[in-house]
Amino acid sequence: MPELPEVETVRRGLLPAMEGRIIEKAEVNRPDLRWPLPENMAARLTGARVLRLRRRSKYILADLDRGETLLIHLGMSGRMLVSGVALGDFVIDHPTPQKHDHIVFHMEGGGRVTFNDARRFGAMDLFPTEAEDSYWLLEKLGPEPFSNQLSEDYLTTKLRGRASPIKTLLLDQAIVAGLGNIYVCEVLFRAGIDPRRQGRQIAEKRLRPLVAIIREVLAEAIDAGGSSLRDHRQADGELGYFQHRFKVYGREGQPCRSCGQPVLRIVQSGRSSFYCAHCQR
Ligand SMILES: [Zn+2]
């Protein structure tokens, strides 16, 4: 599942092809992905100009000059390919059409954006731009990690006194938008907090630094994605997947990068938590 840094990398990779440009032709090759696609989607997109390409949580949002916003969600298996415009120093040729190329945007300027999704867990939708705050996928989201709304006071208030494990609280999208399993594990390692500890068991002076740590961990991952775009390691034009060096995530049994003790894995609410029992208390 792509997390916020991967989605942000995809957004940045799409910018040169999409932002400020007209969708000369939208090809919509099936009626649904995870959910039914919006009615008359091809006609509503063809000829529209993308004014801005933004991100909210793990969604990419393209504001159109017709007053609608196109929402793109990669889901588990969605892949975005960009061709015909420079990505880094490199222009990727248009790929041969593949099975599962469900949506293709032919952009002004010669760029092409292909959404390929074999398992169809991804989604696209259109909603009125002015109704963003009441749109069902966005209305319950808490503040963005890099926004001013996510202050130390805000987060500390949301976490202290709570009986749920800190891992569960940080995964709650209504508290912070966009944090997923991987980066919550990394944040808690960097904060030295045991993922099982309840919000109410953690001293305020250990909660306050979490905002800075969340931003640090996400910013490093976004930088890693940015350099993968610049080095055009994605030579086939596929955006968003790059190699990370995680501190604890996916490293069960391997030595902690700080103390050398083996990294442990437990399951919390059906998700794996990776942590070091020596470094995280
Ligand atoms: Zn350790």
From TrEMBL:
Q: TM segments?
A: none
List the catalysed reactions: Hydrolysis of DNA containing ring-opened 7-methylguanine residues, releasing 2,6-diamino-4-hydroxy-5-(N-methyl)formamidopyrimidine; 2'-deoxyribonucleotide-(2'-deoxyribose 5'-phosphate)-2'-deoxyribonucleotide-DNA = a 3'-end 2'-deoxyribonucleotide-(2,3-dehydro-2,3-deoxyribose 5'-phosphate)-DNA + a 5'-end 5'-phospho-2'-deoxyribonucleoside-DNA + H(+)
Which of UniProt's keywords are assigned here? DNA damage, DNA repair, DNA-binding, Glycosidase, Hydrolase, Lyase, Metal-binding, Multifunctional enzyme, Zinc, Zinc-finger
Keyword Cytoplasm assigned to the entry: answer is no
The family database entries (InterPro entries) matched by this protein are listed as: DNA_glyclase_Znf_dom_DNA_BS, FPG_cat, FPG_Glyclase, FPG_N, H2TH_FPG, Ribosomal_uS13-like_H2TH, Znf_DNA_glyclase/AP_lyase, Znf_FPG/IleRS
Entry binding sites for DNA:
H100, R119, R162
Q: Where is the Formamidopyrimidine-DNA glycosylase catalytic domain?
A: 2-122
Molecular function GO labels: class I DNA-(apurinic or apyrimidinic site) endonuclease activity; oxidized purine nucleobase lesion DNA N-glycosylase activity
Domain FPG-type residues, every copy:
247-281
Record bears the keyword Zinc-finger = yes
The EC number on file is 3.2.2.23, 4.2.99.18
Question: Any note on cofactor binding?
Answer: Binds 1 zinc ion per subunit.
Cofactor(s) for this UniProt protein = Zn(2+)
**Active site (UniProt):** P2 (schiff-base intermediate with dna), E3 (proton donor), K58 (proton donor), R271 (proton donor)
Taken from the record, one Pfam family name reads Fapy_DNA_glyco
Assembly and binders: Monomer.
User: NCBIfam families recorded for this chain?
Assistant: fpg, PRK01103.1
Q: What does this protein do?
A: Involved in base excision repair of DNA damaged by oxidation or by mutagenic agents. Acts as DNA glycosylase that recognizes and removes damaged bases. Has a preference for oxidized purines, such as 7,8-dihydro-8-oxoguanine (8-oxoG). Has AP (apurinic/apyrimidinic) lyase activity and introduces nicks in the DNA strand. Cleaves the DNA backbone by beta-delta elimination to generate a single-strand break at the site of the removed base with both 3'- and 5'-phosphates.
Give the family this protein belongs to, as stated in its UniProt record. Belongs to the FPG family.
The identity of this protein, by name, is: Formamidopyrimidine-DNA glycosylase
Q: Which organism is it from?
A: Thioclava litoralis
The upper taxonomy is: Bacteria, Pseudomonadati, Pseudomonadota, Alphaproteobacteria, Rhodobacterales
